[in-house]
Amino acid sequence: MSEMITADLVDLDLSAETKEAAARALAERMVAEGRVTDLDGFLADVAAREAQMPTGLDGGIGIPHCRSAHVTEPTLAFGRSAAGIDFGAPDGPADLIFLIAAPAGADDAHLTILSSLARQLMNTTFTDALRAAPDARTAAALIRGDADGTDTGAAGSAGASGAAEGAGSADGVGSAGAAGTAEGTDGASENTAASPGAASVGAAAGSTTAPSTASATASTVSATPSTASATASSADAGGSPERPFRIVAVTSCPTGIAHTYMAAESLENAGRDAGVEVVVEPQGSAGFTRLDPAVIAAADGVIFAHDVPVREKDRFAGKPTVDVGVKAGINRPGALIAEVREKAARGETTSGTAPTPVERSGDATEGYGTKLRKWLMSGVSYMVPFVAAGGLLIALGFAIGGYKINKAPSVMDHFLWTQADSWAALLFQIGGVAFAFLVPVLAGYIAYGMADRPGLVPGFVGGSISLTINAGFLGGLAAGLIAGGVVMAIQKVTIPAALRGIMPVVVIPLISSAIVGFLMFVVIGKPIASAQKAMTDWLNGLTGSNAILLGALLGLMMCFDLGGPVNKVAYTFATAGIAVSDPSDSAMKIMAAVMAAGMVPPLAMALATTVRGKLFNATERENGKAAWVLGASFISEGAIPFAAADPLRVIPSSMVGGAITGALSMAFGATLRAPHGGIFVVPLIGNPFLYLVAVAAGVCVTAALVVVLKSTRRQAPGAAPDGTGGTPSETRQPVAA
Question: What is the pTM of this model?
Answer without folding.
Answer: 0.47
